[in-house]
């Protein structure tokens, strides 16, 4: 088994991190994926001083006022029990904000009693540092000199290398491209389709060309492989909450036979548990939320900011291939507005690739934004 490799791809306004693990036979496989936007981090692991603003007995906890006007929730089991309104606490963010709700918190001891005002004491580790701690045998490779220096200071020079080529090769780029959409092709045909809603995540297995076949063993094999891939996608995309999976072309009575085969995949994800099977034959799962799901980061469909940052990432490569060329970004006005509003993205592009002219095209369709020579 080859040692895991952590790849860190840095581009204007964004940091993408991939954990690759595998062996010499099957090759490397994407086992973890993070897309972070450092100007506005999700906050998991951040340490705060916050004030208990309201008890919530019915919810088993309390609401805390945090820096920037944000409100977090501290469960009784994590330190809210016995606390009074107006009390100051030192707390850490254990779950990112979601769906209009504030972050989940846990009390943390300190050298002295905390006092106000609400403030951020320290940022938590980003994805490369979290993965490095979880996989101490892994090495890290990045294409960004400042990031390499930061990681070497934290982890030691021996674990971190700086690549002159992009950190992500074509295969990793394709894997991240798949993560940006809700359809996942399956080897041998068929696909998974993910449907996130405010209440739950529904996953449909489409058997493709095998859908009309009568071979029960083939249907079982396809569904078993599709279920394994569905659990992998749930983990890669940081999906959480109630999850239902509909299998393809199997009688309900035979679907239970596939549940024992899920155990190795469940063991790989400590946040995921199998609830059982519904009366309609849907596999029911529940996953604890920690990080922001990728579709909330990227938007579904991709947001103007996501499309703009992608154009900047490609533009940096265009600039490297055409040194000295004056570049322009042609995009829909909404994309350009999102980039102007996002702290640091355009400035980072200028430092990496030189000046960039912005050209608004109201008729530019989504996905057609591009950086080009003037």
TrEMBL record:
Q: Name one GO cellular component term.
A: cytoplasm
Highest taxon, organism lineage: Bacteria
* RNA-binding protein AU-1/Ribonuclease E/G domain residues: 166-290
Pfam families found in the cross-reference section:
RNase_E_G
Spans annotated as Disordered = 98-123
List the molecular function annotations (GO) for this entry.
Answer: endonuclease activity; hydrolase activity; metal ion binding; RNA binding; RNA nuclease activity
Q: Which cofactor does it need?
A: Mg(2+)
InterPro entries, per this entry? Answer: RNA-bd_AU-1/RNase_E/G (IPR019307), RNase_E/G (IPR004659)
Record bears the keyword Metal-binding: yes
Keyword list (alphabetical) reads: Endonuclease, Hydrolase, Magnesium, Metal-binding, Nuclease, RNA-binding
**GO BP, one annotated term:** rRNA processing
Q: What is this protein called?
A: Ribonuclease
Natural source organism: Teichococcus aestuarii
